Amino acid sequence: MAWFRTLTRMSATAKSWPPPLLPSPLRTVPTAPVASASLLLTSLRNFSTGTAASPASPTHCGDLGPTGGGEKPRVVVLGSGWAGCRLMKGIDTSIYDVVCVSPRNHMVFTPLLASTCVGTLEFRSVAEPVGRIQPAISREPGSYFFLSNCKGIDAKNHRVICETVTDGPNTPDPWKFNISYDKLVIALGAEALTFGIHGVKEHAIFLREVHHAQEIRRRLLLNLMLSDVPGTTEQEKSRLLHCVVVGGGPTGVEFSGELSDFIMRDVRQRHAHVKDYIRVTLIEANEILSSFDDRLRRYATRQLTKSGVHLVRGIVKDVEPDKIVLDNGTEVPYGLLVWSTGVGPSSLVKSLDLPKAPGGRIGIDEWLRVPNVPDVYAIGDCSGFVESTGKPVLPALAQVAERQGKYLAGLLNRIGKAGGGRANSGAEVDLGDPFVYKHLGSMATLGRYKALVDLRQSKEGKGISLAGFLSWFIWRSAYLTRVISWRNRFYVAVNWLTTMVFGRDISRI
Amino acid sequence: MAWFRTLTRMSATAKSWPPPLLPSPLRTVPTAPVASASLLLTSLRNFSTGTAASPASPTHCGDLGPTGGGEKPRVVVLGSGWAGCRLMKGIDTSIYDVVCVSPRNHMVFTPLLASTCVGTLEFRSVAEPVGRIQPAISREPGSYFFLSNCKGIDAKNHRVICETVTDGPNTPDPWKFNISYDKLVIALGAEALTFGIHGVKEHAIFLREVHHAQEIRRRLLLNLMLSDVPGTTEQEKSRLLHCVVVGGGPTGVEFSGELSDFIMRDVRQRHAHVKDYIRVTLIEANEILSSFDDRLRRYATRQLTKSGVHLVRGIVKDVEPDKIVLDNGTEVPYGLLVWSTGVGPSSLVKSLDLPKAPGGRIGIDEWLRVPNVPDVYAIGDCSGFVESTGKPVLPALAQVAERQGKYLAGLLNRIGKAGGGRANSGAEVDLGDPFVYKHLGSMATLGRYKALVDLRQSKEGKGISLAGFLSWFIWRSAYLTRVISWRNRFYVAVNWLTTMVFGRDISRI
């Protein structure tokens, strides 16, 4: 190792940290590693005089100020869900710079999330990085993604207050900063509803983010394995392997279906010792799949019961670490509790000093503008039509969010092209047609190659509704073509194929 | 929803919890969901009289006692690494029952672990569930996998003391239990060496388990994103994006290579704003890849330097949350610190009252038996030949572990076939040839379609050594055929292909 042996003998000009940058593959490569390395060592030695900012006491300052004449106008998007991501995808980046603020750097393909809990799909297959949805964010000098939470909106000064996220010890403490906007799109989504029931937040797992699905999977596999260990009583085995799902909407039903499919196909084979103890109970206060056609609901009830899901009508009163208590006093012990009883406005949305729609969402007009607040728009689950529009608040569906994102991207592009992209301008631009929502139908899978497809435009309307294998096939194909990138389309297809051929994966990582 | 409407009107015989078992797909399916469901509700009501075991105060008792006449003899395997898994794969389950005790339910395909940190491979692709390696564990009534840690060995009474693992709140507290063995195979592996350096365990990340790779990935992506946020000083950007690897063995070199490849190919494109700040430094006290041929080492040094890895010779004295201090006083600020300076005996192995090999590993003879302890064998990184064999302790390599596992499976099968499978029997069986290790060569990848393959049988020996693209191709093919299951072979190939076509995945989940 001539390189190392000559290291100490070399003398080189003292250089200050940081050492020479990583060479670009196009730049000339250093041909004398001996020199460059000893040079680095020297630079390391000299570094000790520098003062590194301690992660405990960072001195952060710096905002992203208002855009100047030489820059493009800036669209700030709060959130990276269906609404925000579809908007960013559609924004014309030759007109605007895009800045996205979100605590996660990817969009979650929520309709497929339930499948990841039991290993039918990989977690990575349902997550789409924001930088792949809108490549300008990674490349353009004025476009950014900030891994941060929005803490407030200062509409008077056209700026938002943000705070970075942290990730436990050894990561920097969070700090605050401001971003000035020309146009602001609020797409903050909604929060899982707990109806103030004690213990839900502490003991139940929601099913809205990838980390929720990961936690469900880890818990499920842990319980399966612990019930096999000597010293577990029969009663505790029953408890550990009782999976309770609260909420009979599409998410709850799909998760129950996937879970019973997993039990039928995989647990029986791979955890033969405990297969007779595992069961799934779905608790719903009213009707399951209330938005679907009567015939489809009956079909779903039949299918779920057939595959071993116990359907129970009840209202949860209290959640304890190992059991839930229903309003009639029944105690239901559980090992895994998944909570999906719908969503409502988040505490941040509630706290914002903006016009509101009935129900507490951010109020918008028919062009998705927040009335009387210049340059501020709201889309997706966090927004709803104000009463004066005479329109009902739209349901919290991916479909609505995606359509609003697409519409607003077009509207902002039109405004920008007409020269109204800057803050406090564009009032005179013709906005064109208002946003009109047309329901394309609903889908839900039940596991075991069965699904429901309801193509009616409203609950009362007429139209096609399908159930069974054909629906399952349509469901899979529809999702496959809607997953945003080709990479993920490919991965989802590969995952489905592998699960069919080899069964689900059961490694607990 | 007739099902729900009739629910309260129904009356049914009171049933006790648990409700009827999940019906098997082959059994008759209930045709009257109304009845079965209300029956369930009744059973739920009646359950409240039962007392569920609280997770805080479980009353665990029960051991896996000695095998009786009607049972097969029991082989207990401690650990699920290369050695233990290869052994289980080879055990003849018509002769023995197999019980595996390990805190993880999968084997990690360690040579590919470095690739998962930067998204070249998925985490799942390098994990192989124990139940897939030896299917009897999931199916046979006397074979088990216990998610537990071994806490001690009571060789006199032919049993091991175990304790279950826990996973934070809402999971059962750990409890202890005993397993009696007929034959015991200790394959507990080794622990990362920290040389007693202060702060290593707190601030550095090792690269030995899937969760380590996950943590490295999360940290790396967090730092990449935080450095882009307004308010980060130039100095802190440099610190956050300085990845320091300590240890120039194959793991350290492979990780550095993958990381610089990730920076060259993906960070430049996807994190364009911060691309000039990220750098990789590899610190090694002696020579990098000391087990490889001189020419290969020179080649590796050249390739790593070319791809921007800074090679530094130094000894780490102290590790702080944001910087390491070298023995010459140099302070090196870091945002990510990966530690791979080799392995040594774990504290459990050290504490076991068994014969030891030079260096503290569990002593074994040439048939991998622990001398003077009947029916106890040790294989893999936790074991070493006792001095009296006159043989050197073998290196801590997957290759050695795998070969020992294979050999011992054959030996145990031979003993079992000759009727010596029970505890305290088999002493008279002819053991055949002792275990002889023949080194097949070493491989290491350097990133960017380059790898080293050293086919010499020893450091001083003669033989073929290759470097460059051909080696990279051999490396990939060799690993592809060695990943145990077809499922994972398929996934690794798909992952590699996707990375080539679409680049690496950068979602932080």
UniProtKB/TrEMBL annotation, chains A, B:
Keywords noted in UniProt: FAD, Flavoprotein, Membrane, Mitochondrion, Mitochondrion inner membrane, NAD, NADP, Oxidoreductase, Peroxisome, Transit peptide
What residue stretches are annotated with the FAD/NAD(P)-binding domain? 74-405
Q: How does this chain sit within the bilayer? A: Peripheral membrane protein
Mention any one GO cellular component term assigned to this protein in its UniProt record.
peroxisome
Residue stretches making up the External alternative NADH-ubiquinone oxidoreductase-like C-terminal domain = 439-505
Top-level lineage group: Eukaryota
Location within or outside the cell? Mitochondrion inner membrane; Peroxisome
Catalytic activity entry: a ubiquinone + NADH + H(+) = a ubiquinol + NAD(+); a quinone + NADH + H(+) = a quinol + NAD(+)
Q: Which cofactor does it need?
A: FAD
Q: Name one GO molecular function term.
A: NADH dehydrogenase (quinone) (non-electrogenic) activity
Q: Which InterPro entries match?
A: FAD/NAD-bd_sf (IPR036188), FAD/NAD-binding_dom (IPR023753), NDH-2 (IPR045024), NDH2-like_C (IPR054585)
What is the E.C. number? Answer: 1.6.5.9
What is the role of this chain? Alternative NADH-ubiquinone oxidoreductase which catalyzes the oxidation of mitochondrial NADH does not translocate protons across the inner mitochondrial membrane.
- Similarity comment text for this entry: Belongs to the NADH dehydrogenase family.
What protein name applies here? NADH:ubiquinone reductase (non-electrogenic)
Q: Which organism is this protein's natural source?
A: Linum tenue
